[in-house]
Amino acid sequence: MVATSPSADDIGEALAEHGLSLRGGWQPDPALDRLPRLPGGQSAGVVWLVGVVGAAHWASFSASSFFADGLSDPLDRWSRAVGDALAARWGGLALYPFTGPPYWPFQQWASRAEPLQNSPLMLRIHPVYGLWHAYRFALALPGAPPANLVAPAAAPPPGLGSLCLQCDGQPCLQACPVSAFDGASYRVEACLGWLQQPSGEPCMQQGCLARRACPVGAAYRYPADVAAFHMTAFAAHHRPVPAPVPALPAGPEA
């Protein structure tokens, strides 16, 4: 008899200790998912998607040693510590959206796990959390899927979802001071150029103004300190790499 994977309630309780949320799960398709073998050599029987909703994770993360150690990517390193420990507890494997290339298809997985829709800001919008959610890792675990595992959701069709099509005036497209979003693309260079100027300080301190203008999930908007952390990380990640300085001609030997 094949052992059953931990229940959604068990996993949810373990995640809640870190302010994380169970965002959905599915039984993997070997041909579609191409997951690695688990530490015990078996195939994964279920995949659970783990994420954050609003700033629920902030208390746990900001109290960790990763937050203020001065090293790069503290949130990713905290996520790995939590994910690897939970995966080891259940004999599985944690998969992350930031370890690549190649990268795991988290956007596709998210669409299979939750009823997401496309938004004008090139982010997937959730009917409850709006744009204030993210995915930190997936847990590929052994055993048969729980009997109450919900079937994967259908991927959102091309174009905007009903949440945004029915939104009066789409204020998100009017809020960006440099019109970095046009509903179909994102001009990241314009955004970064604005953030590097003194006039971009409100965006750096409060978070993306276009994102904050979305009325869906307003209760889950990041507080100022959380928004500033993410904006600083975003700007640093996209900072242009300076061109190498040409080598000077060799001078005469002494």
Please provide a written account of the structure.
The chain contains eleven helices and six strands. The chain is globular, with a radius of gyration of 21 Å. It has helices spanning 8-16, 30-33, 58-62, 74-89, 106-113, 162-165, 172-175, 188-195, 201-206, 209-213, 224-237; strands spanning 21-26, 46-53, 93-95, 117-118, 124-125, 133-141. The protein is of the alpha+beta class and 254 residues long. The termini are far apart. It has a four-stranded antiparallel sheet, with helices on both faces. A two-stranded antiparallel ribbon has the order 4-5.
At a glance:
This protein is of the alpha+beta class.
Strand content: 5-15%
The N- to C-terminal Cα distance equals 81 Å
Query: Which word captures the global form?
Result: globular
Main sheet: strands, sense, barrel: 4 strands, antiparallel
- Give the helix level as a range of percent: 25-40%
State the low-pLDDT regions, or none.
Answer: 241-245, 247-254
Order of helices and strands: HEHEHHEHEEEHHHHHH
Radius of gyration of CA atoms, rounded to a whole number: 21 Å
| Overall strand count | 6
Average predicted local confidence, pLDDT: 88
Strand order of the largest sheet: 1-2-6-3
How many domains? The number is 2
Total helical elements: 11
SS-based structural class?
A: alpha+beta
